Every structure is written in structure tokens, then in C-alpha cells.
Amino acid sequence: MRERRRVDEVAGRLREGTVQRDEVGALEQRLQEIRASVDAGAQEIDVVITRGHVLIGDWRALYDEVRAFRDAAGPAHVKTILATGELATLTNVARASLVCMMAGADFVKTSTGKEGVNATLPVGLDVAAIIEPAIPRL
């Protein structure tokens, strides 16, 4: 029987009463939520990236944010959610995917499913083209 994993979505939770996704100054709170989730047994952490970093081309800020999430998650897997419908261009999607991988994300996901535009075929192909070279060959 397949082991069931506990998954906590933090750093832009979709539940009421939690941090708004792009709230300035919320990084430390997001990191605390990640640590608390891992301490409570989470084996996978879902984080929605700060799209503002992408939209202004601040790739270092995006890298630092995702690296901080990775470090706070310890042994848990980190899934970065790009919300691609809000990233404006396929170039931004590709760069954000690459930066997230470079910063240590275990998974890159196109969207939360809650945006006005979610994963599209062009976006899916773009993300696949970026992550494909990183997939280990068996």
C-alpha cells in the first residue's frame, strides 16, 4: 500500500486567515509557517512564489526567497507554485521555473488552479522544456 503523505500549503495559503500571497514583509512569517508544518509532520510543503519578483525581473530576490523556503523545509519536499497566468510572458515562466530549481525546489507547479488563467499548453510545454534536463536518467 502506498504511504500517504501529509501536505501543508504555506507561504501564500489559500485558506482564510493566513498570509496574503504577495504581502510585503511576510517572508519571516511564511518561514515560520513552513517550520511549524514540518515540525507537525509535513513531508511536502507547497509554496506560492512572490510573483512581484518575477514581474520586475528581480531574479536574485526570487532565488533568495525559494532558497529560504528550501532551508526552512529541512527534509520535506518543496513544491513551488508559479501562478503562471499572472507572470505575463513565457520567458518569465521559463526563468521562474529555472530559478526555483536552482534554489532547491523539488517540484515546480504551474498554478494553484485559483487564478483566472491557469496552466495552458504553451505554459506546460515551457515548464517541461526547462525541467526536462534536470530529470535524472535511469
Give structural notes.
The structure is a single chain. The chain is α/β, with parallel strands linked by helices. It has a single domain (7-134), classed as Alpha-Beta Barrel (TIM Barrel). Helices cover 41% and strands 12% of the residues. It contains five helices and four strands. A four-stranded parallel sheet has the order 1-2-3-4, with helices on one face. Strand 3, helix 4 (90-102) and strand 4 form a beta-alpha-beta unit. Helix 1 (27-39) packs parallel to helix 3 (59-73) and helix 4 packs parallel to helix 5 (121-131). The longest helix is centred in the middle third of the chain and has 15 residues, at 59-73. It is globular, with a radius of gyration of 14 Å.
Number of domains: 1
Here the CATH topology equals TIM Barrel
Write the CATH architecture name. Alpha-Beta Barrel
The counted number of beta strands is 4
- The helix fraction, in percent, is 40-55%
Number of helices: 5
What string, H for helix and E for strand, traces the elements in order?
EHEHHEHEH
Essential attributes:
138 residues, alpha/beta, TIM Barrel, four-stranded parallel β-sheet, 5 helices, 12% strand, disordered N terminus
Short summary:
41% of the residues lie in helices and 12% in strands. By secondary structure, the protein is of the alpha/beta class.
